[in-house]
Amino acid sequence: MDMDGSRQQQRRGSPPEASGRPRTVPIAVTPEGFWCCPSPAALHKSLLKNPHHHPHAKHAPAPPTHKTPSAPPSRAPSVQTAPSVTDDPAPAVTDDQQHHNHSQATTEAPAPAGGQQEPPPQQHKVCVGFGRPETSDLTVMLYGKEGIAVRMSVHRDVLSQSSAFFAQRLAAAGNPAPAPPPCVEIHDCDDAEIYVETVGLMYCDEAKHRLLLKQSVPRVLRIMKAADALGFHACVTSCLHYLEAVPWDGDEEERSVVSSVRRLQSRDKDDGCNYYGGVVTPLLKRIASDDCLRPPSDTFASITEMVLTSTDDRGRREMKALVLNLLKDSTRSHGVGVTGGDGSPPDVISSAETLYSSCRGCLDRLRELFAEASSSEPDYYCPAVVTRRIALETDNLLWLVEMLMLASQRAGDGFVALWSGQAELAASHARVPAPSRHAVSRVTARLLVGVGRGELLPPRDARLRLLQVWLHPLIDDYAWLQRCGGSRPSSASFDRRLVEDGIGQTILTLPLEDQRSILLAWFGRFLKLGDDCPNLQRAFEVWWRRTFVRPYVLRQPDSDAGDVSPAP
C-alpha cells in the first residue's frame, strides 16, 4: 500500500520495542499493530505488474541442499507492496552476494497445515518482501498458490520463542552465529496473507489486544488456524478468548466457530496436550449445557405455561407463533418426517405428557365456562368476559394441538381420542349462545382437516366417535365460523373449502353403514340450512357410487359368466 513520508516518519517514531526484542521491527505495521500484507489476489496482481522480480525456480531433486532466492525485499511503490518500517534504501546486491546467498544453508518445510507434500511443480516469483536482511538473521519463504511467493526477513529468536514449528525447524538447521542466516521454506501455503499476519503477531507482546481491534470473526478463525499450524499457542489462546466474548452473526458463522473450536479440542486430546482446555470449555458452553445432552423437559413445560397464562393478547400471539415455528425447524432438522431419525419425538418435546396435561387444564376450564355461560338468565346472553375466556382457552387448545402433531403422529392421534371423549362438553354446547361457543368448533374443524389430509391417523372408533359427538355442534356453529373467520389473524382464519374436504374425507374412511347414517343426517340439515351448513356433496357422491353403482358393476362379470342374478 502507498504510504507517504509523514506516515512512515510517524511509524519510525513509534514507541521502542520491549527489552530483548529487535529495535527495528522487520515489517510494515498498520495503526492497529498488524502487518500490511496484501491479499493473495493482490500479490498475484503485483506479480503480473512487476515482471522485473527475480524468479525462483523449482529446486532440483538431485542436490541435497536447496537454493533460496537472493532478491532484496520488494519496494515497488504500489498498493500491493508493503514497505518496511524504515525508509533507508536497500543496499545493492552484487553477483558475488547473490552467489553467496545461493550457497547459504536452507531449511525446507511443507505448510504446517498441509502435511508433508512436495513443492508445487511451478515457478514462483517474489511478489512482496518484508523486513530488511541486514537487520535480521532468518529468512522465511512462503510459497502459495498461483506462483505467489512472500519473503520475510525476521529474527530467529522471536520466532523460536513464539512458535513450536519454527523452534523445531531452526533446531534442526543448527546454524550457529555468525554463520549465514538460514532460510525456512513453507510450501503449499493456502493462506499466505494470514500466515504473514500471524508471524507479525509474534512481535506483539499483547496479541489478544491486537486481535480485538477491527477484526471480524471469519478473519480471526483464519488467524487461529494459521497460528495453530505454526504452534503459536499464545495467539490461539487469544483467538479463543476473542471468540468467546464476541457475538456470532447468524447460524453459519456459529457453525464455523464451533467446528473450528471442536476440531482444535479434538486434536488437543489426541496429542495428549491441554493447551486450550481452559478456554475451549467456556466457549462451548455458549451452545451446550454440561448438565445434560438434551434440553430438560421442565424448561419446555415452563415456556408452555408462561404462554398459556399470558395476559397480553399481542405478546401471547407472537410467542405462540415463535415457539411453533421453532418446533417446526427442530422437527425438520431430524430429517425424517416429524420425528427423529430413530422414530423418537424431537428433542424439544421429550414427552407429550406435558402437553396433554396442559390440554386437560384447558378442557376443565372450558367446562366451567360453559356451565357459567349456560346458567345466564336471559336466553342467548353471555357476559363478554366469559365469551373472551372461551375464545382464549380454545386458541390455547389449537396451539397445543399443533405442537402435539409436531411432537409425533401418535401424540396427535391421542388428542383425537381425548377430544372425542368430551361428550359432556358437547352436550352443554347447545345451551351456550352461538356467539360465545362457536370458537370451540374450531378445534373440531382442525382435527377433521388433519384426519382428512392424513396428518392424523386415529383408529376407526376414534374417528367415528369424533363425528358422532362433534359434527352436529360444528354444523350448528358453521354460520358463525364463516362470519368471524375473516376478521381473525391469518393463523386462525377459517378456510371453508379445506374444512369441508376434511369432513368429507373423514366420513369416507368409515364403514359404508356409518357413512350412510352420517351423510343422510347431513343431507337433512343441508336442506334446511343451505349455505349455513358444510357442503359435503363430493363425499355424498362417492358414497352414492359405492352404494348404488359399484355393487352393480361388481356383479357384471358373474352375469356374463352365466350366473343368474335376481332382477333389481
UniProtKB/TrEMBL annotation:
Q: Where is this region: Disordered?
A: 1-127
Q: Signal peptide: which range, if any?
A: none
Can you name this protein? At3g05675-like ankyrin-like domain-containing protein
Q: The At3g05675-like ankyrin-like domain covers which part of the protein?
A: 304-550
* Task of the protein: May act as a substrate-specific adapter of an E3 ubiquitin-protein ligase complex (CUL3-RBX1-BTB) which mediates the ubiquitination and subsequent proteasomal degradation of target proteins.
Which PANTHER family does the annotation name? BTB DOMAIN-CONTAINING PROTEIN, OSJNBA0011J08.25 PROTEIN-RELATED
Q: Where is the composition biased (Polar residues)?
A: 1-12
Q: List GO BP terms, alphabetically.
A: protein ubiquitination
